[in-house]
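Renewal narrative, Specific Aim 1. Our central claim is that a sequence can be written position by position from structural information alone. The example that follows is taken directly from our test logs and has not been curated for this report. It begins with the structure tokens describing the chain, in the order in which they were read.
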């Protein structure tokens, strides 16, 4: 896990006899501590993330789903709070589906959304647009239709 999180690296070197040797390097950890470019996610927060998904889905997660969550955390660098917000949005929309959650998170990334408050605002605006589109009625030209109730005069 430390390698996945980018905190530990395995180095390969050759000794005097030309044999390959492997050693662990803490260089990535030191760089992150000194540079502070991205905060390291709290392991307890990440653990509750998996439990929350299992509770909402009502079943244990498959290995593919676990890998998807890990990819959001490790590769995409999405904060656990934002992933929880994406799950919450999916539940509100009635679409418990990893592809739907992934689309939500990718859309938020495109829009530059980094906090839960920004995500809530974007979700509210999206739902408001959907409601407005649902109740928007089209005006049709009814002069072309024959009225069966009135008959021909």
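The sequence written for that structure reads:
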């Amino acid at each position: 896990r430390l390698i996945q999180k980018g905190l530990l690296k395995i180095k390969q070197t050759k000794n005097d006899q030309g044999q390959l040797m492997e050693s662990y390097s803490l260089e990535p950890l030191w760089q992150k501590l000194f540079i502070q470019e991205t905060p390291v996610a709290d392991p307890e927060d990440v653990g509750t993330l998996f439990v929350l998904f299992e509770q909402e889905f009502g079943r244990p997660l498959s290995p593919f789903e676990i890998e998807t969550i890990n990819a959001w955390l490790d590769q995409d660098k999405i904060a656990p709070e934002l992933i929880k917000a994406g799950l919450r949005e999916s539940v509100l929309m009635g679409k418990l589906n990893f592809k739907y959650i992934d689309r939500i998170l990718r859309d938020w990334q495109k829009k530059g959304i980094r906090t839960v408050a920004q995500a809530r605002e974007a979700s509210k605006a999206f739902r408001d647009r959907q409601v407005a589109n649902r109740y928007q009625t089209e005006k049709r030209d009814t002069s072309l239709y024959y009225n069966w109730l009135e008959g021909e005069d």
